[in-house]
C-alpha cells in the first residue's frame, strides 16, 4: 500500500511539473523575413544554420474549392502533373534532383491550397529554386502527361473511395453538409468529370492558377540571406507578371435553419456508422484554439472521452472521433463513429450526443484542459525542431491566417484557452439547428464481402 501511495504521489508530481512547464512555455519568435517580387510572388524565408539542410516549399492559393464547375479534381490532378516534364526538365526530374542527393520531395492538395516541397542538402538550394521556378511556368500540359495523370487520379479515387468500406462516407460528409459552397465536392475528384476533361481545360486551369502572384515561396534552413535573395530574383523574378484576373470563390454557404438527416448506403459496409456534422467558423476565428482543445479532449487518443465512453465502457463502437476541420471558409465540426457488431447507428448517435451534452453543460476538468494543451503544444514544439517542420508551420500560417508571422503566436493562443472557453464554443456551434446527421450502412440486398 505504501509503495502504491509513493507511486501515486510521484505521478501527481510529474503531471503537475509537466503542466507547469507547458504553462510557461515560451520560445523565441522565428525571425521570419518577407518580401514581394514585382510579379507578385511572396517570398518568406527563415535562416537557420543549425543543420546543413534546407526546406523549400511553394504554396499555391488553389485547392479543391477552386476546381472549375464540372471539373472536380483538377487541383488534385495538378499535384500529380507538376512532377511531369517541363520545357527544361524530363519526367520525374524533381525526384532525381532530391532523392539522388539524399533528400525528399512531395506535395499535397487540400480544399483551400496546394503545396509542393523538398528537403535537400543546402548546397542544392539554387538548383531547387531553379526547378520550382521552371515548373511554375513551363510545365508540359500535353495530351500524354494529362492522360497519364488523369488515370492515376481516377485509380486513386477507386482505391481510396470506392474500394474502402467507409470511403464513400467521407465523401458524403462534404457533399451532404454543403449545399452551395464548392467544399461540397471532394478534393480527389469525380470519375465522370475527370473522364470528360480535356487537355484544353487543363491548360486553362494551369495558366489561371500557377503563377507568381498566386504563390508563396517559403524557404527555411542553411543559407545566406543575400545569396538567397539574389537567387530568388534570378529565377523567380524573371517570370513575367500576369494580368488575367484570378477567379476566387465568392459564394457563401447559408446557415442551417433546421436539423437535416440522411440515410446513405454502399456495398461492402460491414458495420453501420454515423456522422454528425456542424458548421465551423473560419480559420481566422478567435474560437479556433478552443475548438482545437475540445477536439483533443474528446478525441485525442485512447484516454479521450469518446474512446473511453463508446469504445471501452459501452463497447458499442469500434471507432469514435471528433474532428475540428477548420478551413479558410466555413468548415466542419463533426463526430464520426463505426459500430461494434450488433450495434446500430442510432445507438452511436445517442451516445455521441450524450457526450456532447456533457461537455456543453459541465466545465472540462483542469487536468483534461492541461493534458490537451500539453498534447497540442508538445506537437507544435516537435514540429519546430526541423527545418521542414518550421516551413510547414509557416505555410499553415500563410494558408489559414494570411500572415506567416502568426506562427509565433500559436502556442500563446492555446495556453490562453480556459475551461469556460471550451464550454462556450461547444454551446455556440453545436446547436440542434446547425446539425446534420448521416446514417451509413450496407446496401439492402447486397452481401458484404
Structure write-up:
With 449 residues, this protein is α+β, with helices and mostly antiparallel strands. It folds into two domains: 33-235, Metalloenzyme, LuxS/M16 peptidase-like (Cytochrome Bc1 Complex, Chain A, domain 1, 2-Layer Sandwich), CATH 3.30.830.10; 260-442, 2-Layer Sandwich (Cytochrome Bc1 Complex, Chain A, domain 1), CATH 3.30.830. It is built from 16 helices and eleven strands. A six-stranded mixed β-sheet has the order 1-2-6-3-5-4, sandwiched between helices. Strands 7-11-8-10-9 form a five-stranded mixed β-sheet, sandwiched between helices. Strand 9 and strand 10 form a beta hairpin. Helix 10 packs across helix 13 (366-383). The chain is globular and about 60 Å long. Mean pLDDT is 94; it is low at 3-22.
Quick one: CATH superfamily of the largest domain? Answer: Metalloenzyme, LuxS/M16 peptidase-like
Extract low-pLDDT stretches: 3-22
Structural class: alpha+beta
Q: What topology, given as strand order, has the largest sheet?
A: 1-2-6-3-5-4
Helix content: 40-55%
Whole-Å distance between the termini?
A: 53 Å
Q: What is the approximate shape? A: globular
Quote the average pLDDT: 94
| Binned strand content | 15-25%
The sequence of SSEs as H and E is HEEEHHEEHHHHHEHEEHHEEHHHHHE
| CATH level-1 class of the largest domain | Alpha Beta
Amino acid at each position: 500500500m505504501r509503495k502504491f501511495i509513493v507511486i501515486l504521489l510521484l505521478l501527481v508530481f510529474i503531471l503537475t511539473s509537466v503542466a507547469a512547464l507547458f504553462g510557461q512555455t515560451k520560445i523565441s519568435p522565428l525571425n521570419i523575413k518577407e518580401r514581394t517580387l514585382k510579379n507578385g510572388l511572396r517570398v518568406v524565408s527563415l535562416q537557420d544554420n543549425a543543420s546543413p539542410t534546407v526546406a523549400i516549399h511553394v504554396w499555391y492559393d488553389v485547392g479543391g474549392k477552386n476546381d472549375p464547375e464540372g471539373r472536380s479534381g483538377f487541383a488534385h490532378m495538378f499535384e500529380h502533373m507538376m512532377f511531369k516534364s517541363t520545357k527544361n526538365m524530363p519526367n520525374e526530374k524533381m525526384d532525381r534532383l532530391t532523392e539522388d542527393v539524399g533528400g525528399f520531395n512531395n506535395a499535397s492538395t487540400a480544399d483551400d491550397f496546394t503545396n509542393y516541397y523538398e528537403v535537400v542538402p543546402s548546397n542544392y538550394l539554387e538548383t531547387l529554386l531553379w526547378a520550382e521556378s521552371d515548373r511554375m511556368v513551363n510545365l508540359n500540359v500535353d495530351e500524354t502527361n494529362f492522360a497519364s495523370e488523369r488515370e492515376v487520379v481516377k485509380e486513386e479515387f477507386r482505391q481510396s473511395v470506392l474500394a474502402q468500406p467507409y470511403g464513400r462516407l467521407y465523401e458524403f460528409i462534404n457533399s451532404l453538409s454543403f449545399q452551395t459552397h464548392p467544399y461540397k465536392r471532394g478534393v480527389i475528384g469525380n470519375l465522370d468529370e475527370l473522364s470528360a476533361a480535356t487537355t484544353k481545360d487543363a491548360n486553362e486551369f494551369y495558366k489561371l492558377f500557377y503563377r507568381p502572384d498566386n504563390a508563396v515561396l517559403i524557404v527555411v534552413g542553411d543559407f545566406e540571406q543575400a545569396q538567397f535573395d539574389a537567387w530568388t530574383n534570378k529565377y523567380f523574378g524573371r517570370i513575367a507578371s500576369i494580368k488575367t484576373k484570378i477567379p476566387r470563390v465568392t459564394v457563401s454557404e447559408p446557415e442551417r435553419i433546421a436539423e437535416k438527416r440522411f440515410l446513405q448506403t454502399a456495398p461492402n459496409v460491414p458495420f453501420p456508422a454515423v456522422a454528425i456534422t456542424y458548421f465551423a467558423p473560419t480559420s481566422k476565428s478567435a474560437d479556433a484554439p478552443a475548438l482545437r482543445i475540445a477536439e483533443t479532449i474528446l478525441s485525442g487518443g485512447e484516454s479521450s472521452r469518446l474512446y473511453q465512453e463508446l469504445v471501452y465502457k459501452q463497447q458499442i463502437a469500434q471507432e469514435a472521433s471528433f474532428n475540428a476541420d477548420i478551413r479558410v471558409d466555413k468548415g466542419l465540426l463533426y463526430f464520426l463513429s463505426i459500430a461494434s457488431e450488433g450495434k446500430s447507428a442510432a445507438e452511436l448517435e445517442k451516445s455521441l450526443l450524450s457526450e456532447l451534452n456533457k461537455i456543453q453543460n459541465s466545465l472540462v476538468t483542469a487536468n483534461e484542459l492541461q493534458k490537451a494543451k500539453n498534447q497540442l503544444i508538445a506537437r507544435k514544439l516537435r514540429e519546430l525542431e526541423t527545418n521542414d517542420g518550421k516551413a510547414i508551420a509557416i505555410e499553415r500560417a500563410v494558408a489559414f491566417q494570411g500572415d506567416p508571422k502568426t506562427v509565433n503566436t500559436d502556442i500563446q493562443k492555446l495556453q490562453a484557452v480556459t475551461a469556460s472557453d471550451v464550454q462556450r464554443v461547444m454551446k455556440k456551434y453545436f446547436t440542434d439547428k446547425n446539425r446534420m446527421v448521416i446514417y451509413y450502412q450496407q446496401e439492402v440486398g447486397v452481401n458484404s464481402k
